[in-house]
């Protein structure tokens, strides 16, 4: 089982922030596979899963963004009704709390991945090992 | 514990007060007779030298401000014939004329003697080597330290500031054991030393450094101490009071001893001019008790501090003040509460995840907004952590100032970069 990586960027809630970040990724020909925004009063965190995460991390850092690279687990789900439910059911039965989540649709109407950040990635992966789950490998998204 | 002048440094409190009173009376009489500017000021305040019978009577006398130093510039406050003066130093005036401060031979000698006390108090002795990286020039900082160190028998390297490569070469070649340097430059030199792969604990002989001339936080001290493996002593002085050595830390590094046989200190509310209670923050006011060329009475330093009334473990009876917390001009009022930016700064420095840059924005009289940049290096992608941090900032500022602030977390690099004196308070209030 392999970890995947999420790029998190701190942003003030102001017009143009997402534009600035995505421009950098676009110009470097980096593909965004999944993304999410969490915001609160005044600021937020924008999260991306991309095909070239190390490059994206270094590039954003270099451009002065406040960025971190976080471990995540990609769990395959069917892109059909009940797909998400089945996966989350297993996670909650194992007591794994999702800190952030996004979805990567690999093949529309067929295969998607739930990308989750959890408190302890290694432990969570260990707990999930015996379950009938398929995981996303870093090579799959390169 | 070593002393340079054990008798004076450990003089019993009561005797010290007695000595202060004698010297105060003498000083007041002298300026009244010799300095027309003071005579007029005293007459306007309807006080005569004979009205000063106790130390507390000093409250009857008017303050001296930096404006007094500009009136009758340059010789207006000199109490000696000009041919008895042997040295001029000036203090950079932020506006207009500089402040001119004159020394007699006795004053120079006395300043050096005070520095000798300071150095010995930190464990310095003959055989030490002082690299003096302060500016030699119109600024007093370097000279007085230089003479004081020589008096102790310390080898002085008059390096002056700048040329970091050479600073490091001097340290290596001559085995410098002590530095006299500004905090910001010390931080820079330390980082260059480490960048070069020099291990200060093995490759250098540094033992201690004296940092002054700019306010700096306890966190900065600890950081430099850690980087260089040395002890850092806080020193305080101002050109108007002969330069460094007015206040100095002893080995316990718990506040700066003010040499009370030379200076009479008061801490006042900068708004009202009334004394604050011992231990409360206010503006430091100093009266010279042992200066010949240019005695100054109740000089308002604009520096904020508080008196530490408890006796020090080192045995010196001269009371201590806290590190300088900033300038009294920076004080502002929100919801009727007096607040200093330094109170906010102390809170921010104590919170992990916050960068050093911040700004306080005032839009109305009952609200303040504190803008802080988050620390890039400590960002871990978790928004919960940021929310918690913001709440912590709000709580801690509220308990430090009694005013609940609005807090905005900013991306690093958003606020203007401070070059030397940062503009911390943006007051947009119109009335």
Which helices and strands appear, and what pairs or packs with what?
The complex is a heterodimer of chains A (142) and B (431).
Chain A: E1 4-12, H1 17-27, E2 32-39, E3 43-50, H2 53-62, E4 67-78, H3 83-93, E5 98-107, E6 111-118, H4 121-128, H5 138-141
Antiparallel strand pairs in A: 1-3, 1-4, 2-3, 4-6, 5-6
Chain B: H1 6-9, H2 13-34, H3 36-44, H4 66-70, E1 85-91, E2 99-104, H5 105-121, E3 129-132, H6 141-152, E4 155-157, H7 164-174, E5 178-181, H8 183-195, H9 200-203, E6 208-211, H10 218-228, E7 231-238, E8 243-249, E9 256-258, E10 263-268, E11 282-288, E12 299-305, E13 307-308, E14 320-321, E15 326-327, E16 332-334, E17 337-339, H11 341-349, E18 354-364, E19 367-374, H12 383-401, E20 406-410, E21 425-427
Parallel strand pairs in B: 3-4, 3-5, 5-6, 6-7, 18-21, 19-20
Antiparallel strand pairs in B: 1-2, 7-8, 8-9, 9-14, 10-11, 11-12, 12-15, 13-14, 16-17, 18-19
Helix pairs in contact in B: 2-3, 5-6, 8-10, 11-12
Protein model, in words:
The complex is a heterodimer of chains A (142) and B (431). With 142 residues, chain A is α+β, with helices and mostly antiparallel strands. Chain A folds into 2 domains: 4-70, VC0802-like (2-Layer Sandwich), CATH 3.30.2130.10; 71-141, Alpha-Beta Plaits. Chain A has helices spanning 17-27, 53-62, 83-93, 121-128, 138-141; strands at residues 4-12, 32-39, 43-50, 67-78, 98-107, 111-118. In chain A, a hairpin with a 3-residue loop joins β5 and β6. The longest helix of chain A has 11 residues, at 17-27. The mean pLDDT of chain A is 92. With 431 residues, chain B is of the alpha/beta class. Chain B folds into 2 domains: 1-329, Rossmann fold; 332-427, 2-Layer Sandwich (GMP Synthetase, Chain A, domain 3). Chain B has helices spanning 6-9, 13-34, 36-44, 66-70, 105-121, 141-152, 164-174, 183-195, 200-203, 218-228, 341-349, 383-401, and strands at residues 85-91, 99-104, 129-132, 155-157, 178-181, 208-211, 231-238, 243-249, 256-258, 263-268, 282-288, 299-305, 307-308, 320-321, 326-327, 332-334, 337-339, 354-364, 367-374, 406-410, 425-427. Chain B has a 9-stranded mixed β-sheet, with helices on both faces. In chain B, a hairpin with a 2-residue loop joins β18 and β19 (367-374). The radius of gyration of chain B is 23 Å and the shape is globular. The mean pLDDT of chain B is 91. At the A-B interface, β1, β3 and β4 of A face α12 and β20 of B.
